[in-house]
Amino acid sequence: MDNIKRFDLAAGSLTPVLSSMLTALDEGDKSRIREIRMRCRKPIVVITDKGAEFLTCGGRLTPLYSELCVKTDEKEMNGIFRRMCNYSVHSFGDGINKGYITLAGGHRAGVAGTAVAEKGQITAVRDISAINLRIAREIKGAANEIYKAEFAEGLKSVIIAGPPSSGKTTVLRDLIRQLSGAERGRFYKTFVCDERGELAAAVSGIEQNDMGINSDILTSYPKYESIMIGLRSFSPDIIVCDEVASEDEAGAVETGVNSGVHFALSIHARDERELKTKPVLRRLLETGAFSDVILLSGIHTGRTEKIMGAGDILA
Length: 315
Prior knowledge:
alpha/beta
């Protein structure tokens, strides 16, 4: 699926009026859009490679705000929310309670509203006040620089770090394709922990993104469980996970490392200073399995800003 069709699929999850305005944009605009941010009684903010822009009532993008910019009210927000859930909110409950909805094509919508809690656990979200639709893109070649630097001589374990929208998921997606696919000719057994359905974007078990030839994907399993299943049942050469953040997840990775399995992981970090403050990262590096941490630029999607040795961060 090319990225223009992918954009149209994402726009199709909105209400008909908004969907028709967005799908009518020219292909140049569609290719620039990274996020569509909608808030009650506020203008729609479209995040592009140039920054924040607005959707006008005439169906165009503009960097200038005016009263002619399209706004969303409570009724429209509720309509978008229900449409994203295929009019079955209950079936998306687990993700919604964690703040997101995964859509066909690997797109993700962040959802904000009022939490309903029982015994300290969020059981539902009502009064939806904001939705941030992040447009997933497949960029073949996005991992070329990292593959050449880290995997040209064989497998190793690496951590890819970067701020939001720096392309961590895009790079991991392409790295999976290269590790397990025909392009490099090595066909490593690659096990993918796709907890939020963003890497493979599987629909009815069929991957919407190119995951190579020799990869196995577990979708919607918690990362800890997914890693343990991979270790027990799939004898992987390398396990790939997006956004490792908890001690439980780090513990599962540690178990895999001790079993001789390589990992390619991503974590959130805006810069080198933040990297050094993350206990989960320190725990991972202290295993001795991760040779490098690759920090992506926050300006250009997938662009490597710096490659740091584990010792540089642990020092």
